[in-house]
Amino acid sequence: MQTIALVCQKGGVGKSTIAIHLAAEAAFDGVRVLLLDLDPQASAARWGDRRRPGGPDVDVAVESPARLEAALTQAAAEGYQLAVLDTAPHADQAALQAARAADLVLVPVRCSILDLDAMGASLDLCALARRRANVVLNATPTRSRVVQEAAEAVGKLGGFVISTVIRERVAFRHALVDGRVAREFDPGGMAMAEVTALYKETCKHLNMQTRESV
């Protein structure tokens, strides 16, 4: 079983949104996936509660960070192929545990100066966990100059910037209201395309095959 952890020491960067969409994209790809919500706010779990029948199953569980290792062991024994971990901001030890347990760590960040100023703590956490910080530029404006400047700033701090950029799209906000994802809210839309690209890129880093690569 492969494990992806979403970590960032700053709140409001879109960790839960990306975690939910990656888990759902894996489910659409035929992967048996478990979305583990380690955040006391339980945003991912509440999304799972609102999810309606019709789409592929995305199993969501709330778990204590103290039980993360046991939960992942149990998930692997039950035949899950992928676990996606949604962590809380400002929870250093919990995020550190998740990063250490992960095969791939994604660090979402917005392009604002406040978010970039706070990147250091997240990069330090990944270094402590001995995991590469794969930074996802999230909810970005359409202006390419701003995105490029943010990517350069992250690179100077020592982060590796994922090539897929997630833009600010209304589909991301509206889809989550009733337990859907962008693919279901706006099939064929730009939000769906960006999520699909991010999923494929993460699969490459994990050496996981997608249906298209088989």
* CATH classification class of the domain at 2-105 and 170-206: Alpha Beta
| C-alpha Rg (nearest Å) | 16 Å
Question: Would you tell me which CATH topology of the domain at 2-105 and 170-206 applies?
Answer: Rossmann fold
Structural class: alpha/beta
- The average pLDDT score comes to 93
The CATH H-level superfamily of the domain at 2-105 and 170-206 is: P-loop containing nucleotide triphosphate hydrolases
Helix content, binned percent: 40-55%
Quick recap:
This protein has 214 residues and is of the alpha/beta class.
Structural descriptors:
seven-stranded parallel β-sheet, alpha/beta, Rossmann fold, 214 residues
Description:
The chain has 214 residues and is an alpha/beta fold. It has a domain at 2-105 and 170-206: Rossmann fold (3-Layer(aba) Sandwich), CATH 3.40.50.300. It has 10 helices and 7 strands. The protein has a 7-stranded parallel beta sheet with strand order 3-2-4-1-5-6-7, sandwiched between helices.
